[in-house]
Every structure is written in C-alpha cells, then in structure tokens.
TrEMBL record:
The keyword Repeat does not apply. Residues 6-37 form the HTH cro/C1-type domain. Gene3D superfamilies: lambda repressor-like DNA-binding domains. SUPFAM superfamilies: lambda repressor-like DNA-binding domains (SSF47413). This is Helix-turn-helix transcriptional regulator.
Amino acid sequence: MIADKIKNARTIKKLTQEQVAEDLNVSRQTISNWENGVSHS
C-alpha cells in the first residue's frame, strides 16, 4: 500500500514527518495523513 511505502521510505532515511513536509512544501499533517491512508478528495 502507498501509505506503507511512504512511511518506510521516510524511516529508512531517518527523516521526520516535519522534514519531509518541508522538502515537499506541504504540512506535517499532510504527511501524517498520507502515511495513515487518509485522503481528502
């Protein structure tokens, strides 16, 4: 599942949700939602 892949990639690189959010120019909450499979479409 994509949520698992996102979280695994982040943890392998030892990045926080905050760091990933900054790199992607989104909020930390967005990263959390992605990792938890939450979608607001």
